[in-house]
Amino acid sequence: MINRRLFLTTGVGLAGGALLAACGSSSEEPAATPSATEREVQTDKGPVKVPASPAKVVCADYYGAFAVVDLGLIPVGVGGGGYEGTGAFYGDRLKAVPVTGDYTEPDVEKIAAAGPDLILRTIDTPDALYQQLSAIAPTVVISFQQLSLLDVANRLGDVLGRTTEAQALLTQYEQKTAAVKTKHAATLAEHTFSFVQVATETAFWTLGPAWTDTTVLIACGVQLAEPSKSQTEQTQEYSFEQIDILEPSGALLIPAGPDGVTASPDNAAMTDLDLWKNLSAVKAGRVYPIVSGASSLGTGIQLADRMDTVLTELAGS
């Protein structure tokens, strides 16, 4: 379900201004009308006036870039770098965009040089940094850390003046996940899944129902196996010696590399272990690399597409 919009639009301001003007006498000054070139939006730092249709957006951390691209806009600056390794859809669009700092600490001078008309931060932001960024251009802080992928698209659609694009993306996501769930109903009913990834040199994580990637899988109809199914934290860490807790899993999902299909080399610390190789799902060949790190609806749709293929392969195994 799409949440109610959390932003104030110029339409609200115009309606209020018209009402005040109607109540006053003809000798009074007319009520001020908000500029048609800007809107006020609600952010984690309070209300901020932004351009009605921002065109030069700097994403001052890593995750916002994906959501902005989803809505049809290429940023003029991005934080974090390494986008060339994020797959064809995002990598081809972002690899040439100037990097304006790392993931958590943007370079204020480089951001200013990019000439933004809007700066976007999608992680918690200290007040001192916020003031520096706001001196360059209107700065919107909306932390993705507590939002669903649907919330992300909805809120950024309002901020960027692209609500039509956001609604189209939401519809595409809902239709895709529903189609996967319906198409593979029999296979989904027959198997349970665990999505696991390497945490350290000696430990791995199981990803619980609240993890962003897992929410996409659940929307596709995936049933999690224990212990993932019951864990309350997004991730739960176990030592490699405890890998046999994955034995209830009918199939195992592991992170793929940039192509979304081939297993990431980072899995080797876990998948090269004899304990891993002795799991029933591994012996049966039911281990599938999938897209991981979903941070926007577009990446969620990519994950749903991959699960469509995985479930087809699983049905034929």
Question: What's this model, at a glance?
Answer:
Helix content is 38%, strand content 15%. The chain is α/β, with parallel strands linked by helices and 317 residues long. The strands form three sheets. It has a five-stranded mixed β-sheet, covered by helices on one side. The protein has a four-stranded parallel β-sheet with strand order 4-3-5-6, sandwiched between helices. Strands 1-2 form a two-stranded antiparallel sheet.
Tally of contiguous helical segments: 13
CATH superfamily of the largest domain: Nitrogenase molybdenum iron protein domain
**Would you list the SSEs in sequence order as H and E?**
HEEEHEHHEHEHHHEEHEEHHHEH
Major β-sheet annotation:
5 strands, mixed
Given this structure, which CATH class of the largest domain is correct?
A: Alpha Beta
Find the count of extended strands (DSSP E, 2+ residues): 11
Structural class: alpha/beta
Overall body shape? elongated
Strand numbers in spatial order across the main sheet: 9-8-7-10-11
Number of domains: 2
Specify the CATH architecture of the largest domain.
3-Layer(aba) Sandwich
- For the residues shown, what is the average pLDDT? 88
What's the CATH topology name of the largest domain? Rossmann fold
- Give the C-alpha Rg: 23 Å
The helical percent reads: 25-40%
- Beta content: 15-25%
| Low-pLDDT ranges | 1-35
